[in-house]
Each structure stands twice: as structure tokens, then as C-alpha cells.
Amino acid sequence: MKKRLLNEMQTNELVDAYAQIGMLQYSALDDGKISKYNRLYHEKRAIEEEMKARPGDERRALMVLYGYPNMQVRLNAATATLAVAPEPARRLMEEIYASGWPPQAGAAGMRLSALDDGTFKPK
Predict the structure, then answer these.
(1) 12-16: long-range contacts at Cβ-Cβ below 8 A with a sequence spacing of 24 or more?
(2) Phi and psi dihedrals of 41, rounded to 5?
(3) Is-contact 68 21, C-beta < 8 A?
(4) pTM of the predicted structure, to 2 decimals
(5) Segment holding 4, helix H or strand E
(6) Cis peptide leading into 103, omega within 30 of 0?
């Protein structure tokens, strides 16, 4: 498949690519492949920035991933939507934290703590 520019992709295609990246991140974490996880993180952020730059800030479309079966995909979606849907995003993050599922539960707990103490401000 030929790689497309993000600005040429429809919103639903970006959401699908975002979910795929989350799945790959999950596998990279499981396999201890931190450099792969970091590369995927930058791809994930690029999608978030593209969606944010679109009229009306299309990051809300990532909320469809709140029920995704993969914990990393849900964590990524919750984090990405904190600025546009703070209450449901926080609830999902609290659910992930309460699950105790490592390492996503730990990451959710740290994000919640950073939100509460003001060191993380969603943009």
C-alpha cells in the first residue's frame, strides 16, 4: 500500500490509522522495543496534530475508539481527546487506571496525577 499524506486522508481513515498505531505500540511495549514504540509515538502525534488543525478540531472523532478492545488504543484516544472532551476522556482514563492493566494503567495514573496537579494541560 502506498503511504498517503495525512492531509489527503479522510477523518475516518485517520482514525483507523490511529488505532493501528496503538495496536503496534502495544506490541512494541510487550516486546520491549522502545525505539519502535517511540517512532510510532511520533506517527500518532502527527495524526493528532492533523486532526487538531482541521476546521472544528476533528480529534473528537477519536472518541469512537473509547470502546476499542486494545488498552493502548483506548489510552491514546483518551489522552488525545482530553482537550476536546475532558469529562468522558477523564472517565476513560480513570477506568484504565482502575483496571490495573500494566503498563497502560500506570500511564493513565500518571496522566491523571499530572492533570490534577496542573503539570499536564491538554491542548
Answers:
(1) 12/61, 14/47, 14/50, 14/51, 14/58, 14/61, 15/61, 15/62, 15/64, 15/65
(2) -60, -45
(3) no
(4) 0.94
(5) none
(6) yes
CB 47 within 8 A of CB 21: yes
CA distance 22 to 72: 6
CA atoms within 13 A on the CB side of 105: 7
What's the one-letter identity of residue 59?
R
- pLDDT tens digit at each of 123 positions of the chain: 345 799 999 999 999 999 999 999 999 999 999 999 999 999 999 999 999 999 999 999 999 999 999 999 999 999 999 999 999 999 999 999 999 999 999 999 999 999 999 999 999
